[in-house]
Amino acid sequence: NDIEMIQLVGIGVAMGNANAKLKAVADYVVASNDQDGVAEAIERFVLKKDEPQPVPLPLASTIAETTASDAALSTTEAPAEPVPAQPTSEQGNEQA
Fold first, then answer.
1. Domain limits of the chain?
2. Model pLDDT for residues 48-93, shown as the tens digit of each residue
3. Which residues partner with 18 through β-bridges?
4. Does this model's pTM top 0.90?
């Protein structure tokens, strides 16, 4: 009876103290009923706590456009030669 129910629901959740056959067909196994497994299931699947949100992937056209613009930026001129620092007036007085 429990196995059929777990297979028919959208997300089958078994308690940690369920029998092995039921846990095998469940989508998720939470802590036992003595260890707040019901609360864990409610927080995870009803309240959606501690569930990472999916990050949308960029479309292929967006990747191609980004790659092309990055390539255009990398063809800029070479950096100018560094300019040596000029001595300050205090440094000039020490040499005199």
1. 2-46
2. 776 566 666 666 555 556 566 566 655 555 555 655 666 666 555 5
3. none
4. no
